[in-house]
Amino acid sequence: MITRFLLAALALAALLAPAGPAAAATGTLIIDQTRYEDPSGCIPVQGTPPPKPVAVDNRTDEAALVFVFPGCRGPLAGRPLSPGDAARFRQAGSVFVR
After folding, report:
1. Residues sharing a CB contact under 8 Å with residue 44, sequence separation 6 or more, in sequence order
2. Residue 60 burial (10 A CB sphere; 0-12, 13-18, 19+)
3. Over the chain (98 residues), what is each successive 10-residue block's mean pLDDT?
4. Which fold has domain 2-18+26-97?
């Protein structure tokens, strides 16, 4: 449990680290069939009050972190999604992409 929490914290720290001028992701993030072009920051899950089941398709060039609660708070809902990955999460409230 501590290892998972530590890995999540390290992944978040890496995503929040200062970047060069092109800090936004390039590509499309799809959350339950809603498309976000060149997403950046914390994206709320739309629809019924979260947390709820959510499908995320990361077609960007950055990793996406799916959080259980809105505002990119609380624990991760699962493993970080690398560019090109897609997954369904049992509970999600928000997604963070740098």
Report:
1. 50, 70, 71, 93, 94
2. buried
3. 53 53 84 97 89 95 97 96 98 95
4. Gamma-B Crystallin; domain 1 (2.60.20)
Measured CA to CA, the distance from residue 84 to residue 70 in angstroms comes to 23
What's the pTM? 0.77
